[in-house]
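Colleagues,

For the teaching module next term, I've prepared a clean inverse folding example: a structure given as tokens, and then the sequence designed for it. I'd like students to try predicting residues themselves before seeing the answer, so please don't circulate the second half yet.
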């Protein structure tokens, strides 16, 4: 077992140091797809979460329930829905997006959006209403009020983004379903690992897993550093 792990680590280092073209391409595609998905999810999820956390309207609890359910949405279900919509006879079939990186991004948005929106809504829902009333009494405009509250909840917002990124970087079921794991087109690290395991190439699969873990660690470390740095006065 230890020999297999060491062989995998050695092969991973060799792939990186030798700048293996295929591995570099897959790694950069993985980073591009995941980064795009989490950026879109953040741009959509944060405003949605802020609205659900602060606003009071009929049906709010129902929407929060849907968001919370979406946080546990199985990736294969997300992949199935995206496939149905992008299939040739589906509503978006004319766009020919199935088995493209865009399809993978859409699937990853579907699984990460509820996480970011739900955690954001939870953070803003816990803000003391007395603080909001006090800020309004001091003459803060809606924009100023929102900026102050977002600054106050910035640590929770970054935590939501970190959680969302963790979900998309590890996602494999939906990516395999909507992307097809096509060489040079839609193959990313997670789907490549599954393929290598199915072929019995455990050393290659381990090497790729080390690369994937390193990528996830670096991005998560940067986000965590940004989060902790902002805690300083």
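(Answer key — instructors only)
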């Amino acid at each position: 077992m230890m020999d297999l792990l060491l062989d995998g680590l050695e092969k991973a280092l060799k792939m990186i140091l030798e700048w293996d073209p295929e591995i570099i391409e897959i790694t950069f595609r993985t980073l591009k797809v995941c980064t795009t998905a989490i950026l879109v999810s953040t741009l959509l999820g944060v405003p949605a979460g802020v609205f659900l956390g602060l606003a009071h309207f009929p049906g709010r609890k129902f929407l929060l329930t849907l968001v919370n359910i979406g946080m546990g949405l199985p990736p294969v279900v997300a992949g199935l829905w995206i496939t149905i919509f992008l299939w040739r006879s589906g509503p978006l079939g004319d766009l020919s997006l199935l088995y493209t990186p865009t399809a993978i991004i859409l699937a990853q948005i579907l699984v990460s959006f509820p996480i970011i929106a739900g955690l954001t809504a939870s953070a803003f829902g816990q803000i003391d209403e007395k603080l909001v009333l006090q800020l309004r009494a001091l003459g803060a405009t809606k924009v100023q009020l929102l900026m102050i509250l977002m600054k106050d909840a910035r640590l929770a917002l970054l935590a939501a983004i970190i959680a969302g990124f963790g979900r998309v970087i590890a996602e494999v079921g939906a990516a395999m379903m909507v992307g097809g794991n096509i060489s040079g087109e839609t193959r990313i690290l997670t789907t490549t690992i599954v393929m290598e395991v199915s072929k019995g190439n455990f050393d290659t699969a381990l090497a790729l897993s080390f690369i994937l873990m390193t990528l996830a660690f670096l991005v998560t470390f940067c986000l965590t550093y940004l989060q902790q740095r902002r805690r300083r006065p």
